[in-house]
Amino acid sequence: MTVEDQRGGVVSKDVSHYDKFPVGMRVLAVDDDPICLKLLETLLRKCQYQVTTANQAVIALEMLRENRDKFDLVISDVNMPDMDGFKLLELVGLEMDLPVIMLSAHSDTKLVMKGITHGAVDYLLKPVRIEELKNIWQHVIRRKKIDPKDQNKSPNEDKARHGNSESGQGASSLGNADQNGKNSRKRKDQNEDEEEEGDENGNDSEDPSSQKKPRVVWSVELHRKFVTAVNQLGLEKAVPKKILDLMDVEGLTRENVASHLQKYRLYLKRISSVATQQANMVAALGGKDSSYLRMASLDGFGEFRNLAGSGRLSGSTLSSYAPSGMFGRLNSPAGLNLRGITSSGLIQPSGQNLSSSINTFGKLQPTLLPSNQSAGLYQGIPTSLELNQLQQSKCATGIGDFDPIKDSTGFTVSGSFPDNRVTVGSSNSLLSRASSNPLMLQGNSQQTHNRGPFGNQSSLGVASLNPESFDLSIGGSSNFVNHNRSDESWQGAVQLSRFSSNALPLSEPFNHDQMASNNLGISSTSPHIGNSPIEFPSTNVVSGRLEDSGDVCQEGLIGNVVHNMTYTSKQRWEEYKQDYNPNMNHSFSDINSMVPNNGIVSPLGRSLDQNSAICGRSFDVSLIGQLNGGAMSNAQHSEFENSAVDAKIKSNEDCLLGQTKSQDGFIQNGYESLDDIMNAMMKRTVLSDGEFGINAYSLGSCI
Amino acid sequence: MVGTDLRQQLNNYIQSMRDQGILDNQFQSVQALKTEENPHFVLETVTGFCNDADNGIAQMTRYLEGPVVDFTNLTGLSHFLRGSSSSIGGIRMALACRDLRRASEANNKQGCIEGMARLKHEYNSLKEGLNNISQIERQMIGNAQRGRQ
Question: Is pTM, for the whole model, over 0.95?
Answer without folding.
Answer: no
